[in-house]
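During the reporting period, our protein records have gained a structure token line. A sample record is set out beneath this paragraph:
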Amino acid sequence: MSHHYIKGKEHINMVSKALIRKSLLMRMWEKYPKVWKFLIDTGIFLKYKTLNIHKLPNFIKLPSSNILYINPSENRGRALLIKEGVTQERLTEFWRKAVELYEPSLVIDVGVNYGECLFSANYHFETKVYGIEANQYLLEYIVKSREEHPNKSQIHIVHAFASDQEKEDQLFYIDTHWSGTSSASYMPSHNMIEESIVPTITIDSLFEKESLQSHHLLFKVDVEGFEAFVLKGMETLFQNCRTGVGFIEYDSRYIENSGVEIDEFLTFLQRYFIIYVYDLNDRLIKMPIVSYGNLKELFKSDYVHTDFLLMSDESMERQLNLEVY
């Protein structure tokens, strides 16, 4: 095996590890977009031996054998090519396990992006699946992936910005070079931004005429700091579904930038869920009482970026075969 090949694999592994540390990625992309683009391009060249867009694939076969379409000229699409469709390993592993073991009857993915999470699993033939995405430029890829999915007739894609208010327009910042950092809660300092006006919905409004009592709800929310508003707009679901399991991103800086008081947000979550937190060693920590203060103590930092696992019932630990500390 050649020395250059070993170096190439080391570089791809370095990029891959950075991709799954989203807080690092977002800070680096905002401050040093040209450096990050160079790393992505290098990873692409090492894997495909070309940077010619027309010679790069525009789809990925996921571990589930489902097809994920991407834009090979956009950096997150290119990152997905490098990682073979899995840039958020923790989320994807949890999602596939939850679909298999929890057997949800209602699935909601808020912040679909290309659909790395949504299309990673195959659902029961009676499961209702909803994906909500605000970035208009991603819709054609999401729709193409849906058409290849075995549950395509059950998957509903909604182009809107999910919030706690319905039928209001929302200013949305599309990061034209890294779709994963598009947001309504902040405007990155680099100039690769396109402003877009997107209609808002509440997730609850999608189910106004539906009885919810029998539903087992699985949801994911990843909206760069706007999580509190999205979840407030799901309160009827939380109150009425039989059970609920959720996976959300938590970033203290972006939540504060959206104008939300963090402890109020945490109190709201604990009204409906037990909160489990992934620590710095990727262990799942059960926290009977969660406050901003004890999160800062757990992470030894005033800035906390992690993921929360939310469960309405403690018995789901066993059902999902989770290792909890």
About this structure: The two ends are 42 Å apart (CA to CA). The domain at 89-319 is CATH 3.40.50.150 (Rossmann fold). The chain has two domains: 3-82, 89-319. The chain is about 35% helix and 20% strand.
